[in-house]
Amino acid sequence: MTQNKSRGFTPEFREAAAREVVEKSRPVVDVAHDCGVTPQSVRNWVKAYRAVRVEPADLTSDERKRLQELEKENRKLREQMEFPGKATAFFAAKYQ
Asked: CA–CA distance from 46 to each of 65, 72, 94 (Å)?
């Protein structure tokens, strides 16, 4: 993600940060830290992103909450699956 320092953050930068929260279920605080902005800025970007994005109308708030929980769990499981490969690569490079 890149930013335009002369006029603040680009729309692409703000949208990419918002997608990290909305689509990947990353915590706002983590995305804000990675982007070098305040959590409130990311929350504002997420709100704007959701305002123009069409959400499935047939989901109840409980279903949306459950979907977010499942997405978060999925992300954690993916990270757990990737870790052994990363560790193997690290140690293989270290001992060559």
From this structure: 16, 17, 41
The CATH number that domain 1-53 falls under is 1.10.10
Instruction: Kindly tell me if the per-residue pLDDT of 50 is higher than 70.
Output: yes
pTM beyond 0.90: the answer is no
Interatomic CA distance for residues 9 and 85, integer angstroms = 35
- The Cα–Cα gap between 29 and 40 comes to 9
Assign residue 8 a region (left: φ > 0; alpha: ψ between -120 and 50; beta: otherwise): left
Using alpha carbons only, what angle is made at residue 76 by residues 92 and 3, rounded to the nearest 5 degrees? 85
Query: Which of 20, 25, 21 lies closest to 72, judged by CA?
Result: 25
pLDDT reported for residue 6? 35
Question: Which residue, 7, 14, 8, is CA-closest to 51?
Answer: 14
